[in-house]
Write a structure and sequence with these properties.
The protein has 4 helices and no strands. It is mostly helical.
């Protein structure tokens, strides 16, 4: 089984999409790849599983309020971690000063 670089796959899909009157088989022959392989790359680029015949699956996007709440929680956690880090730094300096005779 041959492995193709990701860039080659992306270029092959872009080539197919840029030439509307040309078939997958013609593009695949020009590139020296199996037509089914090119078809799978096109499906993958569309967000579908290779071999699937349905529309791409789109993950639901979280609403703006949920994103804002998550962002606020992350910022709060960052502040807490920064405070803990600062306390540990001060403690390390204190104990390092005590050990010097």
């Amino acid at each position: 089984m041959k492995h193709y670089p990701t860039e080659f796959k992306a270029d092959a899909v872009a080539l197919y999409r840029s030439r509307p009157g040309v078939t997958i088989r013609e593009i695949a022959t020009d590139l020296g790849v199996n037509p089914e392989t090119l078809r799978n790359w096109i499906r993958a680029a569309d967000g579908r599983r290779p071999g699937a015949h349905s529309a791409p699956v789109v993950a639901p996007q979280p609403d703006g309020d949920a994103v804002q709440a998550e962002l606020a929680a992350a910022r709060k956690r960052i502040r807490e971690l920064e405070e803990e880090r600062d306390i540990l730094r001060k403690a390390a300096r204190y104990f390092a000063g005590e050990t010097r005779w």
